[in-house]
Amino acid sequence: MTSRSHYHALCQQFKTIYHFEHLQALGDWDQATMMPAGGSQARGEAMAQLALHIHALKTAPSLAEHLAHAADEPLSAAQQANLREMRYQQRQATALPGKLVQAKTQLTYACEHAWRAQRQQNDWQGFKPNLEAVIALVREEAQILGEAQQLAPYDALLNKFEPGTTMAQIDRVFGDLKIWLPSLIQQVQAKQQAWPTKALPHATIAQQKALNLDVMTLLGFDFKQGRLDTSSHPFSGGVPGDVRITTRYDEHDFLTALFSTIHETGHARYEQGLPLEWRGQPAGNARSMAIHESQSLFFEMQMARGTGILPLLQQRINHHLGCQISELELQHWLTRVSPGRIRVDADEVTYPCHIMLRYEVEKGLIEGRLTVADLPEFWDAAMQSLLGLSTQGDYRNGCMQDIHWPVGELGYFPSYSLGAMYAAQFSASMQNQIGSIDALIAAGELTLVTQWLQDNIWSKGALLTTDELVIAATGETLNPAHFKQHLMTRYL
Amino acid sequence: MTSRSHYHALCQQFKTIYHFEHLQALGDWDQATMMPAGGSQARGEAMAQLALHIHALKTAPSLAEHLAHAADEPLSAAQQANLREMRYQQRQATALPGKLVQAKTQLTYACEHAWRAQRQQNDWQGFKPNLEAVIALVREEAQILGEAQQLAPYDALLNKFEPGTTMAQIDRVFGDLKIWLPSLIQQVQAKQQAWPTKALPHATIAQQKALNLDVMTLLGFDFKQGRLDTSSHPFSGGVPGDVRITTRYDEHDFLTALFSTIHETGHARYEQGLPLEWRGQPAGNARSMAIHESQSLFFEMQMARGTGILPLLQQRINHHLGCQISELELQHWLTRVSPGRIRVDADEVTYPCHIMLRYEVEKGLIEGRLTVADLPEFWDAAMQSLLGLSTQGDYRNGCMQDIHWPVGELGYFPSYSLGAMYAAQFSASMQNQIGSIDALIAAGELTLVTQWLQDNIWSKGALLTTDELVIAATGETLNPAHFKQHLMTRYL
């Protein structure tokens, strides 16, 4: 064996893992979009078996041995980055017993499946025991992952989605937000009070589909490498050569589907733009979930609610829906700040409130200060305090609205707010380097905007750490001031 | 370890295999229905990896050891049947090297993917080298499987789909057919010459979808355990709790989609009706492909082209298509005998000619008497001789029309004709036992027809061998006289 062979053996092993993760992505997508109810049990068992197998591949003694020796080999910087990502995945997997991985997959599949009907029926009593079982397992997971990394349990969960993130960091960022956000919301609402309110035009699902596909094309989605479907909770799934995004339609509110689609298109272009030469290796993956959300929110908030793209959206909406919406009407719809119960429909100013609430809930659940039974009351109180809304008895639009808890993904929510902040920071940097998004798009140069993302974010995969990536693109690490500046510029 | 534990260990191992086969079924279905072109390479690699893994599970030394000891354990008759099916699967897998399994999966995925476009473009020159590579691998497979079972190579391929079938048996059956079928075709055509010809009404895809779903419901398809989609080649896939059938639409010929759907519904009900208590074990699978085709052809030919169901179909067609087709017109369409180039669109009288042609081609290719380069000429000569049709230059409706060869499934085609014969035999038995299909359906007792299939075929899974199953249901093994009788009764 030559000294280089350990690294190459690792590449082979991770390529195999990648193939099985391909099947995992397919199973997840299919379950949410295509699978009939009767398929649930067999699918849950198959996915649990698959998770166990992937876990076994990542925890194989031979993999650990190659990892131990590969660091001594003469590797390029990129190969070293790949090795860093391999080591991270291996450590995360090795910390957890296979039985727990398998049990969690099976339990969350069943919980999510039941949740879909339970949410529709506002059935908190039916959902509660399922969620309790999931939370119990996630607490166990957090405990084990935390011990392995010498992290607090909830920090360990944060690290699953954004390596390096801590409660201390989030607390600081959110603490700052809590100071200036409430008064900003009040100021914006006062300013917008004079805006006329007009109902959205009715739009059939067929019209909306055509509109969404057209806007995806405008935004550079490659349909040879992906598709758009319908699911009860919009998401982006699939694999880099075959990215599958979803939306859901409301005939009385075409903007909910359109802006979900734009959001997911941001995720999709990130995946479609990952470095081809690293495909199948850990370094070829997207950097992290906060960076992923920064791309979707860059598309949804920075780009698609700005003034540059407005006439392009207006023209497509009027064409597909057969209506006569003015630019001003559209702008009002896209930037109206209005506290509501649903996170995914929230405007970008009130959105962080939804995340802060969930963050507090998750910390409480993991640290044992809160039980699932406490959730509705806690939720209602927090919504009252943060946004002045009562959610009493409305579980489906309250603590049952998100897919994250039924599938056991605690620790994810902060990625949305970190993503919104990174998106504003990227936007500011882009403005300094090549011009503002709005000016570029107004000048017919939308592709320059996405090219900047391609060059600075997408093509980097996971070759850099989050901090390295953000510094290379913007000259500094996370700086929430850009987000504050963005909101004030756009909304005041 | 107690003596019974070997059998139970085997059940565990085969349950694991079943879970991975679930993912295989999903990957296959998705590739044919949903996957964009860009997903092809990664999917092919993932599916090859999966095939290799399943192969490794089936050839594991521990599995062989449990198999060797389980036969000495005190097992029920059903458990012994399960053990027989386990042993068969293990032997088939063990005979083949893993590398060949992986290579074949990857090669056939690529070949099928390219074939879809090549077929549309009538691109024989593009398809030829791909097919040559597939045939070379299948010849190797046939050679190895044959040596392991002391069978001729093509017999080994036949055995993959219908264990126990031999060329000697097929030659006998087809030899007999060749004697009486040509004159029957002539007689029927002469009789039908006086039938008026009327064009089918135009039908949108939306109308046809609604019609097909309605007819599937009529035929007892359980939509909680399955779905209908579109693909370029209709097929039945998925898993027992989640059976996925496909069709393809032609606005000028709604019957092609409708009867594909009815055919696949027969396959689907077989899968949906398999014994729940054996799900996940080899004995819980469908018996074989000839028996599978007997169920699809029972639905498509015995049931749906008979006089009993005619008014039920007529009513649904007129309702969904907004037309006024008479019972007689519909009956003429459904029973008109007319030689054509396309197997899947063939009437049941000329259908065996399509199979006999393919059977001769496959034997020739495997035994080395024929090369892929010879195919177009051989095809044209055979079509001229069997059905009086020239297919020169028309590859897409000639030797490029079927999916079986691009995916490397040589040895399958005879299952269709064996299936047609078994279907006629089941129909005759049913008539003796509870009444004719037509009489039962005319009396509003369609469910008695499917209940007979449920009791005699579907619920048996693979607990009986094909001969045992057929004898239990009909009192004799395969008897082609019933098929001949059926055609003469219906068409003369």
UniProtKB/TrEMBL annotation, chains A, B:
EC identifiers of the protein: 3.4.17.19
Protein name (database record): Metal-dependent carboxypeptidase
UniProt-recorded Gene Ontology molecular function terms: carboxypeptidase activity
Keywords from the UniProt entry: Carboxypeptidase, Hydrolase, Metal-binding, Metalloprotease, Protease
Keyword Nuclease belongs to the record: no
Natural source organism: Shewanella algidipiscicola
SUPFAM superfamilies: Metalloproteases ('zincins'), catalytic domain (SSF55486)
Any Pfam family: Peptidase_M32
Family: Belongs to the peptidase M32 family.
InterPro entries: Peptidase_M32_Taq
Function: Broad specificity carboxypetidase that releases amino acids sequentially from the C-terminus, including neutral, aromatic, polar and basic residues.
Catalysed conversion reaction: Release of a C-terminal amino acid with broad specificity, except for -Pro
Gene3D superfamilies: 1.10.1370.30
PANTHER family, sorted: CARBOXYPEPTIDASE 1, METAL-DEPENDENT CARBOXYPEPTIDASE
